[in-house]
Specification:
- This is Secreted protein.
- It comes from Streptomyces qinglanensis.
- Pfam families: DUF6167 (PF19664).
- The protein is mainly α.
- Strands 1-2 form a two-stranded antiparallel sheet.
């Protein structure tokens, strides 16, 4: 009788254990759980990538400093940047040229019309308009 009770208890415990394991696996494979796990992995990968990029930048800055020191180029960068700027004031564009440049019509005559151009047979024609289908009816 004790043997039967032992095996009955062992079987019940094994059934409960197996049922619990199966239920956990089913819950972990649910779409929302998979999406949450994927999002966590993506965030973790982003953090790793950011740390890597910061390490690379720090290494680049360190190596650049070493190279500048070795080549004797350790002058401040700000002085070089301002030295490249032109000394005098910029000359302004004439008003008419400024207007045509602003409107995107540089190279057109003041009226804004396109010049006539020769067609494929060498005759002068007016420029094509997007709605002009040039159909023979």
């Amino acid at each position: 009788m004790i043997r039967r009770a032992f095996w009955f208890t062992t079987g019940a415990a094994a059934g409960v254990w197996a049922t619990t394991k199966v239920q956990r696996k089913i819950r972990s494979l649910a779409p929302d759980a998979l999406a949450l796990r994927a999002a966590d992995k993506a965030v973790e990968g982003g953090h790793r990538l950011r740390e890597f990029a910061l390490d690379v930048r720090a290494g680049m800055a360190q190596r650049e400093g070493e190279l500048k020191d070795a080549l004797g180029l350790s002058a401040p960068e700000e002085a070089d940047r301002y030295r490249e700027l032109p000394a005098g004031p910029a000359t302004p564009l004439p008003r008419q040229q400024e207007r045509t440049v602003l409107r995107g019509q540089a190279g057109r005559p003041p009226g804004g019309a396109l010049p006539a151009r020769p067609d494929h047979q060498g005759h002068q024609s007016t420029p094509n308009h997007p709605n002009d289908r040039n159909e023979d009816h």
